[in-house]
Specification:
The protein has 5 helices and 5 strands; from the N terminus they run ααββααβββα. The chain is an alpha+beta fold.
Amino acid sequence: MKAFADIPIAKKLVSIMLATTIFALLIASIMQAATEGIAYREDIVQNLSTMGDVIGANSSAAITFGDTQLANQVLRSLKAEPSILTGHIFDIDGNLMATYTAAGNEASGSGASNSTDMARVQTWLSAGKPVRSFEGWKKVDIVQPILFDGEQIGYVHLQATLSPLIQTLHRFALMAGITILIAILVAYLVSFRLQALVSRPILALVDLMRRVTRD
């Protein structure tokens, strides 16, 4: 394999142009993907926080009167949100009053994983502070207090999947790959034509210098 220094100047110019195009597109694609990922994470946390506020407001009576049936009825409204995996309502002492589990998550979840999740939630509850926790690119949990007349009466926990984000990034990667391939083809055709304008005078000058040297 020839070293880059041994490649003809015309091919060097084409290679440099292609490398510059590929590098610029890769950097732009990575930055765009990172921006989309960060924006999605912020949006889903905001949406979960809003849903938590709604759940908390609707469950205040259930918590006040210790009505677990009403609390479970409030959580059943989460069926309208396909991204929600689980939801819980706790009283002020951290006692579980109601649980919601999405149908698909209930079928695929294991007792061990559910126990682990509940242990994490109890740890968050003991801290007594709002929680926003991401588990890699899989899911996100929030825990926030439920207030009634300015007084904290309980907690709501929601867990949502990040699979829509992964699907979005997969589509973005596919489109970015197609765009880069098209750009490489266009850049090759353009650079193949432009390199002649640059290389011909240089080659002519080199040829002239060789003739002068021989003479």
